[in-house]
Amino acid sequence: MSRERQTIDRAAWAEPDAETLMPDAADGAAHDGQAMHALLSRLYPICRSLTGPGVRETLAILREYLPLEIHEVPTGTPVFDWTVPQEWRIRDAYIQDASGRRVVDFRRSNLHVINYSRPVRTRLRWADLEKRLHSLPEHPAWVPYRTSYYHDNWGFCLTHEERSRLAARGDEAEYDVVVDAELVDGALTYGEYYLPGESRDEVLFSCHICHPSLANDNLSGNAVAAWLARHLGRQPKRRYSYRFVFVPATIGALVWLNARRASLAQIKHGLVLTLLGTGERWTYKRSRRGSAEIDRTVAHLLQKSGHAHRLLEFEPFGYDERQYCSPGFDLPVGCLMRWLPGEYPEYHSSADNLELVRPETLADSLDFCRSVVDALEQNRTYRSLCPHGEPQLGRRGLYRAIGGEDGRADLERAMLWVLNLADGEHSLLDMAERTDLAFDVTVRAARLLVEHQLIEDCT
């Protein structure tokens, strides 16, 4: 296989039907939440990794919902300081006791084997086998998720309850150990969906597709991203172009950045979407720039939403925002989530399952992502057509006939601020931040003033 990036023939993938791509516009939040959870349930059993059949199967399912372009990058391809690894293909893995019972079985849970374990077929005493095992003493009924992507290693994960039962049999007990897998020259696979808009300036949404049966991390991000892309695809008009990427963590993001290096300047806003299926509180980690428009937009919307939230400064730890925000790129990409990685107890364990992720939380996450997109689309700059003194709003029906009358105070205040700051330099977000008015109220005020020919769009 050539070392050049390969694009899989789109005709080889089943095209989504019209009903899938264009669902009933009247579908409500409850329906969206259930539908996203149904997609998540289809993806959950698949054994994913950085590379291999699980990633391809995942993208094939996502492609039933979105017309993804699928790319493959061959093993050995240099990518900045990294190299695309060999492809991992696993068929089976188990630990079997003397009676023939599989005490640890990959077929029951793909978390039972350390991801990227090299092939093994041996018999070991417990004293030697235990060194290869991982469990969670603080959560004895859960199986941990562990990886060994870039190290020649192997091992198993199991509940601490099972580990204790095996330990009780003594150091001399023997077990057959099998990891039926192979590491071969193949490819890294990722998916991309591009929606053109009026401008070539892009909004990037990214989520990782390399985790196996973990529902919140990050199948929730995949489901929300897919539904957000469907929502945008139904819009008759888009100011920005939108790009959705579904990539293996770290190496996948770097591969994508390398492939798009010549056009990265077009990315004006971006979000990594992850951990969106459970939790009441929102968490937003700002981009490396700290005050990019996406950072200010998400912060303003969260502050006005009434939801519990926290705003965090950028740090080079977490998800793929650290690749997009590395100093050589410094893209305006933040990370939108409800938890920090490792913060909720079920993180990277078998307890991060379908029951943990709630349809109503997925729907709420989708709704907030839509509001972020709406704000980016509507954040324009205006110039006053009546800059000398305050125009008479009353005779245009834009001001209360009786002073002190309630009900329109915020809108009227917003109109006065928009008129005052419509100097061709202040955006609507600038105005909303300065006045502490909600962004949507500022947008309504600007639209009314445009209708009455008091300001003009000069974006």
Reconstruct the topology from this structure.
Elements: E1 6-7, H1 18-21, H2 29-43, H3 53-62, E2 69-74, E3 78-79, E4 82-83, E5 87-96, E6 102-105, E7 120-125, H4 126-129, E8 133-134, E9 156-157, H5 160-167, E10 174-184, E11 187-195, E12 202-208, H6 215-233, E13 241-247, H7 251-259, E14 267-273, E15 282-285, H8 293-305, E16 309-312, H9 321-324, E17 333-337, H10 359-378, E18 381-384, H11 409-421, E19 423-427, H12 428-435, H13 439-451, E20 455-457
Helix pairs in contact: 2-6, 2-10, 6-10, 8-10, 11-12, 11-13, 12-13
Can you describe this structure?
This protein has 13 helices and 20 strands. With 459 residues, it is an alpha/beta fold. Strand 5 and strand 6 form a beta hairpin. Helix 2 packs across helix 6 and helix 6 crosses helix 10. The radius of gyration is 26 Å and the shape is elongated.
Essential attributes:
459 residues; nine-stranded mixed β-sheet; single chain; disordered N terminus; 20 strands; alpha/beta; elongated
Entry summary:
Helices cover 31% and strands 22% of the residues. It contains 13 helices and 20 strands.
Rounded mean pLDDT score: 93
The count of β-strands is: 20
Q: Kindly name the structural category.
A: alpha/beta
Query: Helix proportion of residues, in percent?
Result: 25-40%
- Rounded to an integer, what's the Rg over CA atoms? 26 Å
Poorly predicted runs are 1-26, 401-405
